[in-house]
Specification:
By secondary structure, this protein is an alpha+beta fold. It has three domains: 120 residues, Arc Repressor Mutant, subunit A; 248 residues, no CATH class; 48 residues, no CATH class. It has 17 helices and 17 strands. The strands form four sheets. The chain has an eight-stranded mixed sheet, sandwiched between helices. Strands 1-3-2 form a three-stranded antiparallel sheet. The protein has a three-stranded antiparallel sheet with strand order 7-6-8, covered by helices on one side. The radius of gyration is 25 Å and the shape is elongated. The chain starts with a helix and ends with a helix.
């Protein structure tokens, strides 16, 4: 017998467990706890269900749509799954509430599967033990020596942090990992591939055959790209040398330290590769979490902007808003020490296939990248994203983008504003994804 079958047998009418006063007080505690997020829809939906329970009323799907979610009179429940999605999410949020705040409550309120009413479920008392929890260290697959050094330092720092009982960093990671924005990546069996945006570097030789300078070209991101450049420039082909070298911005290390604890909450192995080593087969078979500059997106660039309302501007330090014709331009590369600057951080998430998801944590420069990572690891900032897109359905949260305007000094971020959010056109993304995988 499954746990769900057992729960269904134990479920009782809500009136057997709570008086109207107790039920209203419980609903307020749940709302005030913050587990419903900043979206007004979940609080209104819960209030409506509480009132229906007090009145011993079983609302219909159309009533929930019109009276609780504020949908228009012409709402079609047969063609629109909004109510079912909200009920599904509210069911999970109620579970989260009891796991975090009322583990010892005699009864918990639940929404039985296939119904739109509240019910009471007896809880088994929680036994508190004091045996030390095993130390959890992320499992990594490393592809380059440079990344190995970086991850070794990161893991060493994480081990120290995790040995501190009640560590706020660990708590914040658990809260962020439970947010719907991370749901598609963390809560299944698909592996996670963390892709670091690196810059491929090659050498240019002088007449004596020595490396005169190291070169970064935005269209040369791998040894294969360098070969193509050599074939396209026969006269200078002998002047180029593969140095087997790449580098990453400093902001990537900060972002990596913020994101890894969240990925660890999935309990799945975290494989890591450089963008210069990423293959289309890996995009097909893994959830992709990208950390790095916009200018290092390389193989993910076309997917990122296929369904976007933003496009690369006159350089990688600029994005263009297609609808408003507004330019978002970073000047983070210009100011001298101690001078303030403006940068931009970009977050996007979209499906790469029917089973895999892409999450991009990126920016024009370090400050933008670091702020995006910070926002994606903070529960309040994650809620602000969902509120800004004005839709917290599973479909919306799985495919949208957001742009932060970041203010900083000396390459560090100090303040930021969320200046743009938009749902992505998944159909256009899928067309680009399919073409990428074929090629």
């Amino acid at each position: 017998m499954t746990n769900t079958d057992t729960d269904n047998q134990q479920i009782r009418a809500i009136q057997e467990a709570f008086s109207p006063v107790e039920l209203r007080a419980l609903g307020k505690r749940i709302t005030d706890s913050g587990v419903l997020g900043r979206s007004r829809h979940y609080a209104r939906l819960l209030d409506y269900l509480v009132q229906c329970a007090i009145e011993n009323k079983s609302p219909k799907e159309i009533e929930l749509a019109l009276e609780a979610l504020g949908r228009a009179e012409d709402f079609d429940v047969s063609a629109d799954s909004t109510v079912r999605v909200y009920i599904h999410q509210l069911r999970k949020k109620l579970d989260n509430y009891y796991e975090q705040f009322e583990k010892d409550a005699r009864y918990r309120i639940v929404i039985p599967r296939g119904k739109y009413t509240l019910a009471a479920l007896p809880q088994t008392p929680v036994r508190v033990t004091f045996s030390p929890a095993p130390l959890k260290v992320p499992r990594f697959t490393l592809t380059t020596g440079l990344l190995l050094v970086m991850i070794m330092l990161l893991v060493a720092n994480l081990v120290v942090l995790m040995q501190d009982d009640g560590n706020p960093v660990e708590h914040a990671s658990r809260v962020a990992a439970a947010h719907p924005v991370w749901d598609k990546v963390l809560n299944d069996e698909k592996p996670i591939l963390l892709v670091m945006g690196d810059y491929y570097i090659f050498g240019e030789l002088n007449a004596n055959g020595n490396v005169a300078r190291m070169v970064r070209e935005f269209n040369v991101n791998s040894p294969r790209d360098l070969e193509e450049l050599q074939f396209s420039d026969i006269e200078r082909t002998e002047n180029y040398l593969d140095l087997d070298l790449s580098y990453m911005p400093e902001g990537s290390a900060y972002a990596l330290a913020r994101i890894v604890p969240i990925l660890q909450e999935s309990g799945k192995p975290v494989n890591i590769t450089m963008m210069s080593d990423l293959t289309t087969a890996e995009i097909r078979s893994n959830h992709i979490v990208y950390i790095g500059y916009i200018s290092a997106l390389d193989k993910l660039k076309e997917m990122t902007f296929a369904g976007s309302g933003l496009q690369i501007g006159r350089s990688y330090d600029e994005l263009f808003n297609v609808d408003t014709a507004e330019y978002y331009t970073s000047d983070a590369g210009l100011p001298e020490a101690g001078e303030p600057f403006r940068d931009y951080g970009l977050f996007a998430t979209f499906p790469a296939s029917a089973e895999t998801q892409v999450i991009l944590i990126t920016g024009m420069r370090d400050a933008g990248l670091m702020h995006t990572a910070q926002a994606l690891t903070d529960g309040k900032s994650l809620d602000d994203l969902v509120v800004a897109i004005d839709s917290d359905t599973d479909e919306a949260v799985a495919s949208f983008e957001a742009l932060y305007e970041v203010f900083g000094i000396d390459r560090l971020n100090f303040d930021a504003n969320l200046v743009y959010t938009s749902l992505l056109d998944s159909r256009r993304i899928w067309g680009t994804v399919s073409q990428t995988l074929v090629n």
